[in-house]
Amino acid sequence: MLEMTKDTAAAGETKVSLKNLQLSFPDQSGGVKQIYQGLDLEIEKGSFTVLLGPSGCGKSTLLNIMDGLLQPNSADEILIDGEDLRDRPDLSRQMAYVFQGPRLLKWKTLAENAEFGLRGLGVQPRDRWPELMERYFAAVGLSEYMHHYPSQVSGGMQQRAAIVRAWVNEPQILLMDEPFSHLDEITAAEMRRILVDLWRAEEVHRTVVFVTHDISEAAQLATDIVMLTPAPSSICFRRKVDLPWPRHIESDEVMDLEKELRKAFAERAGVRF
Ligand SMILES: Nc1ncnc2c1ncn2[C@@H]1O[C@H](COP(=O)(O)OP(=O)(O)OP(=O)(O)O)[C@@H](O)[C@H]1O
User: Fold this and answer.
1) Strand-pair partners of 177
2) What is the pLDDT of residues 139-151, one digit of tens each?
3) Which domains does the chain have, with CATH numbers?
């Protein structure tokens, strides 16, 4: 019970607020594909929010909008801590992105890749770099491999290094786009445990927005689940999750939650997983 109180300590404050998002893209037949028609989304500070939805519903696009990489056609607000990202593009420096693949520079060691992340964002003073690198490489169990090249370590280790590259900046918001989807299930399960341990270890949790179309993964990770319909997407189901960690993939609680999510998808979005 104590654990749950700590993990929901920041409950209530809004970190990200998107209001009335409108976005369309040209489609291949010369028409227009509507992605959002008035989508609203709030993300709570310190939450581990999982965006769950079928392929093409616009999950990655939402991360791109939150990071300021993409502008919607229109929006009433794109707020980070109450300030509009369109007026304050510098707010994106509070964020870090982890992609589906590790995207490491293969001619640099894991440590040099992380340092590249530090230099790129430029939010950490240089004299903190060694301490930050040591801390976060140790946290993901990669201390011994810091000076190896990507080709000398496994795919899972490369993805751990990609997480370090994002985490060393100590971002307030971590945007993660299906970061474990290319890994085998055993490695992915280990990565989820490492990520949750990293997130929980900090007194004030960072806000994580994690995209997946894997219901089981959502049940293992989330404190908040946001379920999207196919495009034009709307939120068809939203739920908080109070299950304690570590969550085992085959535990009754996780499997019950998965069942509930599958049912919600089928009933509210007409999508079967
Ligand atoms: N720059 C772009 N130009 C044209 N269409 C785009 C662009 N970016 C995204 N789309 C389209 O917008 C829709 C939503 O894309 P997005 O990548 O956000 O979906 P997703 O839910 O993350 O899907 P997946 O789970 O398959 O990654 C898709 O139909 C995609 O083809």
Assistant:
1) 211
2) 999 999 999 999 9
3) 2-269 (3.40.50.300)
Is the ipTM higher than 0.95? The answer is yes
Do 96 and 175 meet the contact criterion of CB atoms below 8 Å apart? yes
38: left (phi over 0), alpha (psi -120 to 50) or beta: left
User: How far does the centroid of ligand 1 lie from the alpha carbon of residue 263, in Å?
Assistant: 25
For ligand 1, atom 18, which residue shows the shortest CA distance? 58
Residue type, 158: Q
The residues, ordered by sequence, that sit 6+ positions from 118 with a Cβ below 8 Å of its Cβ are 124, 129, 132, 133, 168, 169
Strands (E), 48-134: 48-52, 77-80, 83-84, 95-98
Tens digits of per-residue pLDDT, 199-218?
A: 999 888 999 999 998 999 99
DSSP 126-167: GGGHHHHHHHHHHHTT-GGGTTS-GGGS-HHHHHHHHHHHHH
Spatial neighbors of 57 by CB under 8 A, at least 6 apart, are: 228, 229, 230, 231, 233
CA of 25 to the centre of ligand 1 (A): 9
Position 61: which residue type? T
Please give the distance, rounded to the nearest whole angstrom, from the Cα atom of residue 35 to the centre of ligand 1. Answer: 8
